[in-house]
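Quick log. Single chain, no ligands specified.
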Amino acid sequence: MQSNKKDQKAAIADKNAEKERLAALGMTPTLKKAIGDDECLCMECGATKNGPLTKCECPGGRKKPGKDDEPIPHLIAAAKARSADNKEADKAEQMRSAAETQKERANRKDQRNADKNDLETQLQGDGGVEMNQIVEFPVGKLGMDIEGNCISKIGDAPSNAADLGIKVGWVICMINDVPVGAKKAAIVKAVATAMKAGPVSFGFRVPIVDGYTFCKSCDKFLVAADSFEEDQLALGPGKQMCSPCYEVADMGFD
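-> predicted structure:
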């Protein structure tokens, strides 16, 4: 009985001594778990079964751990190296995932903008000959002249209107989603007021295809070659009237 107690005490002492020895070599519970079933393959280059170096690279050949060799430092070094590699791999994966997320967000934003444009560009008018076009102007000079509510001139590039693709003959119908009439003074006032708060959204009526001209009297886009006299076309946007409207105006009924 007494002998058993001595043996137990000796075993406990040996166990504590082994813990102290491993601790002195740098072993921790976390490292012990990371080492797991790894084995040292070579005492010279530190190759181990689980790597990251899994094959001896020594010129003179592998030196297996002997009875008096201590492989623990190699196993600890290998575990730390694997941990570092895993961290780098995780970091690379996080960066890849972040890039994918950013790309997906950009794609969703582009799709939202496309959907918005689809909603803002809607066919309307007789036979679908015109559409609404929404364009946001930054704060600053517009770079265009108007006659009534028609664009009569575009300034040379670079200018806001030129850079945004505005064209002569387009008709202003809204300022910041508020409908406007054909009075130049009212439009200029509305734009000046809106621009004090930031960029201004213009709503334009735009012919779908070239060859259509706006008649200020009947408020429609018509085929220029068929509906306007040459002298009316020469007057320019905002002043032009189609032949029927001009005839009525010439009779004094306007």
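The longest strand covers residues 130-137.
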